[in-house]
Design a protein that fits this description.
globular
């Protein structure tokens, strides 16, 4: 009897039980298609219904060889709101990719009769998206400041790692010296960086918050970006309350291709005040993560009111990055002119882009005719969660 490929679909309401069962399988039997922390968070998605599909899993003779996550969401099209599902954790074991399992997983998703969206997709997925008539939108630009760009030892380490991977040899170039050298660079550079970007202005008053007030942001977004993927206060608060990642190391996360373990991970909401703690200058949500010793800080959701402006955002983000001793800082594209005007920031600066692929349903409907009006954002899709 020939070997058989099977694609199973897991409903949102069943994700937690499915993840627990997958974790109990022997490591030699198959991949783990979703981590326990991610399954728990997805089961609380405020934009999902219990019977929505949350995960497709591919089996080859009962062995898990691939998976495709589905995160139900919404898109705002002027006065209309439609459903859309973001694709996530798309992976096929390299040993089985020649069998067309990636295309089978995407075909299953396309059969759901809902619009699909993906961003940041790996190059291997692009031909499949094209074949399935996904529209590729203009890439979303954003900014990155990376201290490894001025750390010669980190550059050498990356080069050695690339050579060793290409030759299929295992390497361990994770010694402490490049990291210690970079820490020394940061101690010298951060004060100058903050001064050249922020000038004489002081950092804004900020207090930690626990949630975005209900409805506070919705009206602002409706006025500023009437065509967008919906990321309102419900979604931001879900992110703050239900992390997809875990800071508890375990074997299950190591067996999950996208490994949701972080040494440190936090989403932090800051309420910004211009003069006193009673006025409302807006808010900023930051991501802080330490993964294998590399510390990232990212500006996620934000809204500032005058006299607060983009320079305030950059200055505040850099102050928090210094506190966190971040190696890499991600900021929205509107920050580019400020960063590029600073010689110090310019030495760390690089433009980055993220591709988008959209498959509207139904074809020829409102969503498809509105694609050129969509205002894209760094927080679209699964990017800000893990």
């Amino acid at each position: 009897m020939g070997r058989r490929i099977q694609i199973d679909e897991i409903r949102v309401k069943d994700l937690v039980a499915f993840a627990a069962d997958a974790a109990r399988r022997k490591p030699s039997e198959s991949l783990i298609p979703i981590s326990a922390s991610r399954a728990f968070a997805w089961s609380h998605n405020p934009q999902a219904k219990p019977d929505d599909v949350g995960l497709f899993v591919a089996y080859y003779d009962s062995k898990c060889v691939g998976h495709l996550g589905v995160v139900p969401s919404q898109v705002k099209l002027g006065s209309t709101v439609e459903g859309v599902s973001w694709l996530s954790i798309f992976y096929v074991d390299p040993e089985y990719r020649s069998l067309g399992i990636g295309a089978m997983l995407l075909l299953k998703a396309a059969a759901m009769k809902t619009s699909l969206a993906a961003n940041g997709a790996g190059g291997d997925a692009h031909p499949i998206y094209t074949a399935l008539k996904f529209h590729q939108l203009p890439a979303l630009p954003f900014c990155n400041l990376d201290f490894s760009r001025i750390n010669v030892f980190a550059s050498v380490r990356r080069g050695v790692d690339r050579v060793m991977r290409a030759s299929k040899f295992r390497s361990d170039t994770s010694g402490d010296f490049p990291n210690l050298f970079q820490d020394g660079i940061k101690r010298i550079v951060y004060p100058t960086l903050i001064q050249t970007v922020g000038g004489d202005r002081s950092s804004p008053n900020a207090t930690r918050g626990s949630h975005v007030p209900d409805g506070y942001w919705q009206g602002i977004l409706d006025r500023e970006r009437p065509y967008r993927f919906c990321r309102d206060d419900r979604v931001v608060n879900w992110m703050l309350e239900q992390p997809w990642t875990t800071c508890v190391p375990n074997d299950q996360n190591a067996r999950f291709h996208f490994n949701d373990y972080r040494r440190q991970f936090d989403h932090r909401l800051y309420n910004i005040h211009s003069t006193t703690q009673s006025d409302n200058g807006g808010f900023v949500v930051l991501w802080l993560a330490d993964r294998n010793g590399h510390r990232d800080i990212r500006v996620l959701d934000w809204h500032l009111t005058p006299p607060m402006d983009v320079r305030t955002l950059v200055h505040f983000a850099l102050m928090k990055a210094k506190e966190f001793n971040a190696d890499s800082i991600y900021l929205p594209s509107c920050c580019a002119p400020i960063l590029q005007s600073s010689p110090v920031a310019n030495a760390l600066y690089q433009n980055m882009q993220r591709p988008y692929f959209i498959r509207p349903y139904p074809a020829g409907g409102l969503f498809e005719s509105s694609l050129n009006k969509l205002a894209l954002d760094y927080c679209d899709g699964d990017t800000p969660f893990a």
